[in-house]
Amino acid sequence: MNTTSAAAAGAVTFVWLGMVLAISFLEAPLKFRAPGVTIPIGLGIGRLVFRALNLVEAVFAVVVIALVATAGPTAAAVALTAVAAAVLVVQLVAVRPPLNRRSDAVLAGEDPAEHRSSVHLFYVGLEIVKVAALIALGCVLLAR
Questions:
Q1: Are 115 and 102 in contact (CB under 8 A)?
Q2: pTM given for the model
Q3: Number of H helices and number of E strands within the chain?
Q4: What φ, ψ does residue 116 adopt, rounded to 5°?
């Protein structure tokens, strides 16, 4: 395995991991506890933040895929890269659209209690899988 490409892929992987942890598991739940932040305001902020996060994640995924490919990867590195990228694709294509429809309804003035959705829990579950894959991938890449 090309150690320079592997080290660079590991670094990008851990930055990606840090962003997901900071935004999904720290910023997202805490913003609703801030004084004066209503559900519509929190949803509006969340949409902007997650749109930016997902854009950066897509760029990081492409960079990691390219670096892993040029590193002469192990089977574990390929599998973990595929898991992280696949989870991101599922989140963007299958989970974000229903979440956006829900937040659109709340932002249009509908009662948030009427728009509870288990899709949000699915998104969180996918975040946990992605975090585990990124931790494992970073460790595999930096162990080379």
A1: yes
A2: 0.93
A3: 6, 0
A4: -60, 145
- For residues 59-94, one letter each, b for 16 or more C-beta atoms within 10 angstroms of the residue's C-beta and e for the rest, the string is ebbebbbebbeebebbeebeebbebbbebbebbeee
Q: Are 88 and 20 in contact (CB under 8 A)?
A: no
| Cα-based angle 25, 26, 30 (whole degrees, multiple of 5) | 120
Measured distance CA(87)–CA(127) in Å, rounded: 8
Half-sphere exposure of 78 (CA within 13 A, CB side): 8
Kindly report the CA angle at 88 between 49 and 2, in degrees rounded to 5?
Answer: 110
The DSSP code for 109 is T
Cα–Cα distances (Å) from 79 to 19, 72, 73, 90, in that order, read 22, 13, 10, 16
Distances in Å between the Cα of 94 and the Cα atoms of 8, 57, 64 are 30, 16, 22
- Packed helices 39-70 and 96-107: angle between N→C axes, nearest 10 degrees: 160
Q: What is the domain partition of the chain in residue ranges?
A: 3-142
Tell me the pLDDT tens digit for each residue of 96-140. 999 999 888 888 888 777 766 789 899 999 999 999 999 999 999
